[in-house]
Amino acid sequence: MTAILALQLTLIVPLCGALLIALCGRWPNLREAVTLSTAGLLFYLVIQVFGAVERGGDEAAALYVELWQILPGLHIALHSEPLSILFALVASGLWIVTSVYSIGYMRANQEKRQTQFYVCFAVAIFGAMGVAFAANLLTLFLFYEILTLSTYPLVAHKGDDKARAGARTYLGILLATSIGLFLPAMMWTYFVAGTLDFRPGGILDGNIGGIGATILLLMFMFGIGKAALIPVHRWLPAAMVAPTPVSALLHAVAVVKAGVFTIAKVVIYIFGLDFLVDVPHEVVAVYIAGFTIVVASILALRQTNIKRMLAYSTVSQLSYIVLAVLVLTPLSEIGAIVHIVAHAVAKITLFFAAGAIYIASKKTEINQLDGIGFRMPITMGAFAIAALSMIGVPPTGGFVSKWYMIAGAFQIDSYFVLIVLTLSTGLNAAYFLPIIFRAYFRKESVAPPKPHGEAPLPMVGAICVTALLTLLVFFLNGPLVAFEMAVLGVPR
Amino acid sequence: MLSHLPILQVIVPLLAAPACLLLDRARAAWLFACMASLVSVVISGLLVFQVHQFGVLSYSLGGWDAPWGIEYRIDLLSAYVLLIVSGIGALMILAANTAIRIEIPPERQPLFYVLYLLCLAGLLGIVATGDIFNVFVFLEISSLATYALIAQGQDRRALWAAYQYLIVGTIGATFILIGIGFLYSLTGTLNMQDLSNRLPQLENSATAFTAFAFLMVGVCLKLALFPLHLWLPNAYAYAPSIVTAFLAATATKVAVYLLIRFHFSVFGVGFAASVLPLHSIFLALGLAGVFVASLVAIQQPNVKRLFAYSSVAQIGYMIIGIGIGSATGLQATLLHLFNHALMKGALFLALAAVVFRFGSADIRHFAGLGQRMPWTMAVIVIGGLSLIGVPGTVGFISKWYLVLAAFERDWWPLIIAVLLGSLLAVIYIWRLVEVAYFWKGEDEVCREAPLSLLIPTAILALANIYFGIDTRLPVYLSDSAAQMLFGVSP
Amino acid sequence: MLPELYNYWVVIVLMMIGFYIVIVQGNLIKKLIGLNIFQTSVFIFYISVGKVADGSAPILAEGVDVYSNPLPHVLILTAIVVGIATMALALALVIRIKNAYGTVEEEELQERDLQC
After folding, report:
1. Mean pLDDT across the stretch A331-354?
2. How many CA atoms lie within 13 A of B423 on its CB side?
3. Contact assessment for residue B195 and residue B142, using Cβ atoms and an 8 Å cutoff
4. What is the predicted pLDDT for the residue at A63?
5. C75 touches chain B (CB under 8 A)
6. Does residue B288 lie within any of the structural domains?
7. pLDDT of residue C2
């Protein structure tokens, strides 16, 4: 199979998968088989594309498909480069794991409307693949909106008042920011630059004045609401009403990473690092990201619900990526890219663990977790690994990315960034370590009504896989970094 | 046969109307009306093809040649508008059979189709003819049919709305008649082609100016340009839903066509600019229309009224396009003619489905509608996104061209104003979405609308997406038409 | 100025009278009468425009070579027909309004709408 065909199939396969899942709705086993095989096939396809990008040369350069021309100069087109393939790999790879996990979760919890759940999930992955492989801003925007709309039913899945209220915030903020800021910013870009293509070195250099560029950058940052900068972050905690697999894949990986991925794309391929360095007030954006990191960490510290705490932790971690992207040094860009992966695998582990705890013991609050490490040793072990990655302790992925970020900050001697990173590391430790402490060093205050052990096997398996991946990011960081250097125009 | 297409376009629905009267059973009348309107779609398709192939078609009615006889003249612009009107007309009538079932008593249903076909014939006639007095006649045919159609609404306020529209519409038509009279006494011809040849020599004539002013005001009354829009919300809100859908998607479009025809073809682009700052007036009124109507729309409790005000706002966008005064601006207007017909057609048809189930389109019926009538609500969401101008829908295309036209002139405040206007649309669409998806409905059980209503609605909704992605046809037609209008009279 | 353009003055006066009645009168029937006067003024305008000085009626006859222009007259025949149709429709509407509301006064109509 040629890579170019594989690239197109990455969009077609999840869509066909969604259709088949809908058709197989009456036979749950068949339906789940379809989900799993679609996920597997998609991952295989992404690997194929990855292979071509990896081999480099003409084959990688030719990975461009123009699907449709909307208007002259406005295309729907796909393209694969190292940054996008990384996001696609993460999203599609973790989809397999999450599918296994959700089968355990949904069945154990006897959720209603499971077919709708799996269909929307597949469509959301379709959206994520489109975001990953978009060759220009317009294509990216289209798939970004598909991702928003397809995840709305997932957030509102429970159908009660609380779910509806959460879904309302979710949809309202994401749509309003994208239509109110992202879309005008995109049009502005087109009118000054004459194109929306992602090009190495950016397209805005010389086409827009300094103040204009600053305003445009801020419009993008807040317009891309999925990146959850304060004050447009509120959708993320609100979305925690969704079933845990949704929170895990979408709100730790696909949706939020689509947000920071888009910001990275915009900064690297629309503005261009060299141009942005000269923009006068670019540092305002850095301050906003730093502010978000610290404030979200403090908010996370005050949460009592596990999933809400994880959500605020996500808000803060996303801003790490935005911050690192905006530091604009090669090392910090690498840090940002590695953190997309490192945070994805670690945060999905945390969510999986939270879901497993809920399924096994119906516990949702942090102060209920006393002694749970003895009942669910594997789950809590994985939780501990992931939490260490969040803090940035070796040997986990979080250490690698933080290392590059700090190195990048030293390159420009930005004390602000260094202080933010140090402070937030402390805060991360302050809200994760007590949980681990509770789980292992406190006795259960009241015995649970029903003694329980680990969650169902598919869930535990999924947790182990993602925890292992968290460790792998640390050990395999060399190839990963070398591969991603291409984003910065460094030849391998 | 093919050479007679320009007149067949008008005569088929015109003759089908009285024939429909002879069929006293509603179903038979419906089938017959469907056939007639499908035939007119085919004809308009062929006309577009012919104009594309051979250039402007001129047809002398009754064999009397142009300056004496009535000429039917189909150029790209008229072919384009004919296609919009007949296409929407046919789709609406497919849905009409079901939609009017609860709104119009059975014994009056055959008469409904008669009126509908008459209205369609009038609208098509306005576009097809090349004679300005003929324009007046067809305008009155369509208007009279429209008044009667609006009066069919269930609510007694429909009568009152129809009466008000009749008064305003007749004044507008009489203004147009006065303008035509001045033009005739000045030039001695009624043929648009002749007029456009003779008027440039009379640029400084006060009579020509007076005629122009009367024509413009008359047409602006018909197209409900802010602040002459007051008849529209009531008329749209109380008319039977299918009539609202049909009128919203076609009648105002034809009025805009007339404005463009008078302004660009008959008088020429230069004329207006030489005597008064018409373009600035259009820009100001268009913008005021967008903002005032959108703000009013946000507060409406009746969804039909809400979208009626939204129509006034959208007409504002079309007028802004003309006011920019460049070929791109005009193209934006022409594109919006097509695109707005698609989105409002879809939205009002979806509302017809809601009215079919609940008896009215009050916003309280929308509570929980997302679960009860998922497909209808999906259409409303698509139409709403299109109104806002989200990429992937037709609304984006017209807004894109509008912004492009403003950008060519470097009018940044206008760009910002247009984008702010879209945000107002976000608010009123969001209000609807919020009620439909996030409020709990009362416990009355309610099913999805019947397929006969749902299929035409879905076709329009899909067209909203399809033409938002495959833009070749409307962009080609509007581009050529705009070039032609600016090329003929630079 | 006045003498040779008196037909225009007649038209303008009639038109304004008609327009005024449409705006001011609250009675639906009287409004229609105003509308009718308004339209009639335009008819007179057309007919007087067709007059050619010293022209006779446009009928071929020996010894006559100046005719009035018949075209405006023909046009206005059409317009009169349209006007009659409009008026008939309007009156029919008024009858139905009377049946539905029990009044043809604008203010009372609005009151009754507000009540329900």
Report:
1. 91
2. 14
3. no
4. 80
5. yes
6. yes
7. 62
Reading the block at residue A16, the tokens are 């066909």
Give the residue on C whose Cα is nearest the Cα of B155.
Answer: C100
| DSSP states along B437-466 | HHSPPPS---PPPPHHHHHHHHHHHHHHHH
Q: Is the peptide bond before A231 cis (omega within 30 degrees of 0)?
A: yes
Structure tokens at C6: 């008196």
CATH of C6-56+64-115, one of 3.40.50.10490, 1.10.472.10, 1.10.357.10, 1.10.287.3510: 1.10.287.3510
DSSP single-letter state for residue A160: S
Q: Which two tokens stand for residue B329?
A: 């601006």
Q: Which domain holds residue B293?
A: 277-490
Closest chain C residue to the Cα of B178, Cα to Cα: C42
Using left for φ > 0, alpha for ψ between -120 and 50, and beta otherwise, residue B13 falls in alpha
Question: What one-character DSSP code corresponds to residue B71?
Answer: E
Q: How far is C64 from chain B (nearest CA, A)?
A: 22
Query: What value does the mean pLDDT take over residues B232-249?
Result: 91
State the Cα angle at A278 between A272 and A281, rounded to 5°: 105
Position B281 in a domain: yes
Alpha helices in B299-368 (DSSP H): 303-324, 327-358
Q: Is residue B34 part of a domain?
A: no
Percent with pLDDT over 90 in chain B: 43
Quote ipTM for the complex.
Answer: 0.93
A194 lies within 8 A of chain B by CB: no
Regions in chain C scoring below 50 on pLDDT: none
- Two tokens, residue B116: 């509908």
User: Per the structure, how many domains does chain B have?
Assistant: 1
Q: What is the pLDDT of residues B395-441, one digit of tens each?
A: 999 999 999 899 888 888 898 898 888 888 988 888 888 888 877 77
Q: State CA B429 to chain mean position distance.
A: 21
Mutate: best of C86, C104, C106, C111, partner B, most B CBs <10 A: C86
Q: What pLDDT, in 10s, does the model give residues B13-27?
A: 999 998 888 887 888
In chain B, % of residues over pLDDT 70: 97
